[in-house]
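Supplementary Note 3. Input sequence used for the single-chain structure prediction.
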Amino acid sequence: MLRNRFRFTASVFLALVLSSSLLAAHDLPVNTIMNAFVKIEPHQAHLVVRIPLDLLQGLSLPLKGDHYDPAASGPATQQALPILAAGFMLLENGVRLSPSESSGRLSLPSNRSFQDYDAAVAFIAQPADLSTTISYNLGFFDAHFVYPIVSPKSVFKIQSLIGVDLGNMIKLTVRYMPLGESGRAMMIPGDSGPVDLNPAWYHAAGGFVVLGLEHILSGIDHLLFLLCLIIPFRRIRGLIPVITAFTLGHSVTLLGSAFNLAPNGAWFPPFVETAIAASILYMALENIVGANLHHRWIIAGLFGLVHGFGFSYALKDQLQFAGSHLLASLFSFNVGIELGQLAVLCVAVPVLGLVFRGVLAGRMGVILLSAIVAHTAWHWMIDRWNVLWQAPWPQVTGQGLMIFARWVAGLLLAVGLATLIARWIERKRPPAFAPGPSQDVVEELQKV
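The predicted structure, written as discrete structure tokens, is reproduced below.
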């Protein structure tokens, strides 16, 4: 085990050194996107990758004037393959794989073979056309690596060390093709560690729980909205229906966005951000003028629909790493958000109880704290409105009208259900602060 760790660390270090040398000629390449296929077969894994020559300045490829010389590139290509193999880590159950076969060649910028796995493999296997002219740094290096594997059911991970010094400027687009399953694509930033290509459901779930926690705890606008919700309350028990309604609201739009049921125009993200700021402002003003706490859960649920779209933007770029466990990942992300909300509540409610003592006791503390939040939300709303105003507004299309009609119908249904539930609760449970008989009536009753 110790020997394996040492060899793994040494190989990573070697790849880092090599990748740094490949970029030594200049620091800002123009083409920074690599394309790859990873195909799993019963006893082998195939990595077929296309790397821009702009990222491989350190390779000693023969030149003829201002272009590469394919006729003399054979030996240089064979020498480059081990270097490139060290620049890509393919792991099976945490163990780095070593290629048993490798081949490669140069290709023109106009070559389209990487639109399909079979076409890419067939192109790399062909002998190079010696009459081809490839301008300096404008082509690609295509490589095919074959790795022996233990089982196609193993957990596979991939990491690129090419251009690691450039961080997330480098992108690796991977199209993963598991055995007996539908394929999927993902875009991996260059500063990522090893990324699961086919994560187990519990690995995916754990990662998305952490992602939900990080998002809610780092989202200052969501935290301020939660603060506005809880400022008038003094006990967590009274907050249960409010937080439950908010959770249900943002869960609906989060799921809808994950299944591409939300508008996707450039105007929609700034619209959501503006609406989130407006929701904070509304809740703060409601606290100032006097909130109806019995109906606050309805408002929380409706604004939860808006915040769910905001949560979806943090999730959108990460769902590609869910593998085949989309629903489990969505549920886990939601669990992470709820755990973060509970943590905030458990801290904020006692702290507010201490703050609202003495001078800030009663309505004075609620008004003062809400006014500070309202001032912040107002400036956010104005700034975000300016961004929204400059965004390209959507053109009216049949599909857009259909999506809009679905969400309006869903919103009306949610409002109707919330109203019915509220009336049912009021009939079943009398108000907590129902007025009692006057003192005169009590004295008369005592005399009788």
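Residues 91 and 157 are 5 Å apart (CA to CA). The mean pLDDT is 78.
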